[in-house]
């Protein structure tokens, strides 16, 4: 199958959507499909052979955060050329609800379309102004996918209509088979009820309060007070000096900042720790880092966000604590560090529940959607005459409609230009589900 | 007199332009609606195809000789009824098939036994995939119905009969929840 995928966010900036697109493309190519990804990237950025650059993205303030926009007609022309040259059987758009490359492709494409909604921007009054412009474009999408039940609810409430839930994919075996690093593991005998230690991991941008590191750092001295040898390993971009400022001197030695880590080190870290903590305070629509930790066999202690609760199956596959409650975090962490049996039980439960997130399953589901959409469209375009409205005739009806729309879409494009026609999505840190902290490949 | 005529001409031109613009707008709305009808037809074709696939997979499993005879008879009957059901019984019959499948596959151990043979593993895999696809296809179908109805509800669509003779389609409401033991 010839598949075109549109990634709205700059390829060279790490983020959840970009990684999803990258891994999906790699898996589909592995299954023997022809895949082309259209993404914003500087022309001198090295990109994999399957990526087509849509040009440089320009940062512009949009809806409360900085969006990187691919402006107007040049981008629109690149999108049209990509669609034309690709002659795709199906086009898969990511985040077409935001003003982005995906929206441009949605306007221009006449082939069957599938769209994945990773998250929706919080509803704002300014954005409802763009809704009448968005709607005719979004109507063209044949199948809508949400990455979580939570993302689906957001979509239903904000844009209307329904979507099927197909989660983000994770390469479970990559994490399950990673080798623990001795310097990141707790020395034997130091954990459990009689030990005084344990290792807690955190991965995420340390200067982004939504990722919740301040809550964990507030709780950490209490944990050290009860188990003096406990270590905290923090991986992620950001100013470590500033982050460590709130820590009492006595526990500063127990905290190690690792900076940005590679995919391999990330997996090794998750394999090594006794406990993975996700103290995020909000803004998550899925929580892929939890699935990665669970795949690696790290017991998870996370905030009771809706999105996390769904991944942790309401607490069966990982423990949860009230959002922002450092005392509860400390208590739960101490309980888990003292009880290896409970950790093992969580690990088993998590190991079973992550299987549905494995790329083999997720890519299979997404392919089923592609097949359904392309097969049924092929049948309808050849057998349609009986369904014709008055004034429309013959089997070419789909094309007639599309061509007519095409001629008017330039008008719509003009109207849309000011409030969201030609642009390229908020920065991943803004609205996107972007809880992964990995280096770009 | 000349002045009045000029004003009159301007008015005519203005009205003509407005009518033309509204005509373009109506035509564009009709195009949107037409495209949604095409999308709905495609979604219905996909849903029918997946339902057929599901009943075929059920029938094949029932006739494989791998199930006990009572279960086989129940499933074969349910699958056959789904294939021959009249249009107005579709929802009832497909829900019944789903429930029979859930009743037949409620024991994880029995399912593991069935999956133990290569043929059984294939058949169960095919049935599970078909059931998942029914769920996906039904969502897409009902979403299309909703989108069509929304536009057909517009005043300009009703007054100018932009929907033409395309029939108003209903959503397809069935129980399509697969057996819990199929969860991967």
UniProtKB/TrEMBL annotation, chain A:
Query: Record's CDD domains?
Result: GT4_PimA-like (cd03801)
Which Gene Ontology BP annotations are present?
carbohydrate derivative biosynthetic process
Record's keyword terms, sorted? Glycosyltransferase, Transferase
Transmembrane portions of the chain: none
Stretches with biased composition (Gly residues):
416-432
Q: Where is this region: Disordered?
A: 381-401, 416-441
Pfam families (UniProt xref): Glyco_trans_1_4 (PF13692), Glyco_transf_4 (PF13439)
Which GO terms of the molecular function aspect are on file?
A: glycosyltransferase activity
Q: Which domain of life is it from?
A: Bacteria
Where does the Glycosyltransferase subfamily 4-like N-terminal domain lie?
A: 14-173
Query: Is this entry keyworded Lyase?
Result: no
InterPro entries in UniProt: Glyco_trans_4-like_N (IPR028098), Glycosyltransferase_grp1 (IPR050194)
| Keyword Protein biosynthesis part of the UniProt annotation | no
Q: What is this protein called?
A: Glycosyltransferase family 4 protein
């Amino acid at each position: 199958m010839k598949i075109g995928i549109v990634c709205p966010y700059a390829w060279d900036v790490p983020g959840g959507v970009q990684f999803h697109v990258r891994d999906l493309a790699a898996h589909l190519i592995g299954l023997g499909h022809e895949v082309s990804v259209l993404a914003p990237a500087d022309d001198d950025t090295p990109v994999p052979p399957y990526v087509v650059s849509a040009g440089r993205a320009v940062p512009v303030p949009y809806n409360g955060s900085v969006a990187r926009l691919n402006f107007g007609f040049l981008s629109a022309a690149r999108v049209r050329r990509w669609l034309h040259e690709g002659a795709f059987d199906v086009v898969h758009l990511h985040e077409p609800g935001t003003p982005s490359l995906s929206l441009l492709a949605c306007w221009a494409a006449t082939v069957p379309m599938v769209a994945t909604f990773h998250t929706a921007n919080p509803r704002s009054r300014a954005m409802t102004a763009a809704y009448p412009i968005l709607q005719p474009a979004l109507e063209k999408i044949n199948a809508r996918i949400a990455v979580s039940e939570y993302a689906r609810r957001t979509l239903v409430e904000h844009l209307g209509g329904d979507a099927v839930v197909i989660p983000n994919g994770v390469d479970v075996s990559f994490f399950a088979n990673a080798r623990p690093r001795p310097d990141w593991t707790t020395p034997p005998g130091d954990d459990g009820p009689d030990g005084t230690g344990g290792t807690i991991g955190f991965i995420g941008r340390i200067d982004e309060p939504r990722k919740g590191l301040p809550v964990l750092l507030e709780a950490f001295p209490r944990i050290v007070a009860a188990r003096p040898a406990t270590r905290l390993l923090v991986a992620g971009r950001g100013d470590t000096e500033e982050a460590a400022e709130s820590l009492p001197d006595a526990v500063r030695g127990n905290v190690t900042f690792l900076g940005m880590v590679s995919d391999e080190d990330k997996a090794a870290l998750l394999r090594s720790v006794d406990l993975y903590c996700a103290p995020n305070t909000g803004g998550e629509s899925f929580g892929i880092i939890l699935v990665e930790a669970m795949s690696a066999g790290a017991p998870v202690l996370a905030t009771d966000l809706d999105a996390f609760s769904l991944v942790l199956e309401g607490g069966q596959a990982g423990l949860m604590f009230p959002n922002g409650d450092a005392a509860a975090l400390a208590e739960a962490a101490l309980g888990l560090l003292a009880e290896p049996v409970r950790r093992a039980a969580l690990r088993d439960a998590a190991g079973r529940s992550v299987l549905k997130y494995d790329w083999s399953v997720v890519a299979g589901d997404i392919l089923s959607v592609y097949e359904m959409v392309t097969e049924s469209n092929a049948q309808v375009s050849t057998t349609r005459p009986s369904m014709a409205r008055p004034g429309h005739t013959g089997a070419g009806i789909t094309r007639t409609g599309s061509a007519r729309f095409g001629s008017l879409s330039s008008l719509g494009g003009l109207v849309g230009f000011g409030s969201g026609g030609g642009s390229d999505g908020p920065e991943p840190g803004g609205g996107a589900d972007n809880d992964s902290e990995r280096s770009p490949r | 007199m000349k002045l009045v005529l000029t004003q009159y001409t301007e008015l005519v031109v203005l009205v003509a332009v407005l009518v033309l613009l509204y005509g373009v707008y109506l035509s564009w709305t009709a195009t949107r609606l037409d495209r949604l009808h095409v999308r709905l037809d495609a979604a219905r074709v996909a849903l029918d195809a997946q339902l057929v696939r599901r009943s075929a997979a059920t029938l094949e499993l029932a006739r494989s000789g791998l199930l006990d005879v009572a279960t086989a008879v129940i499933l074969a009957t349910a699958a056959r009824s789904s294939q021959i059901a009249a249009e107005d019984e579709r929802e009832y019959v497909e829900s019944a098939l789903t429930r029979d499948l859930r009743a037949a596959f409620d024991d994880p151990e029995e399912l593991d036994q069935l999956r133990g043979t290569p043929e059984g593993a294939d058949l169960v895999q095919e049935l599970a995939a078909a059931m998942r696809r029914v769920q996906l296809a039904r969502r897409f179908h009902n979403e299309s119905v909703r989108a069509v109805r929304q536009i057909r509800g517009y005043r300009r669509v009703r007054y100018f009969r932009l929907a033409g003779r395309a029939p108003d389609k209903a959503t397809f409401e069935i129980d399509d929840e697969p057996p819990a033991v199929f969860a991967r």
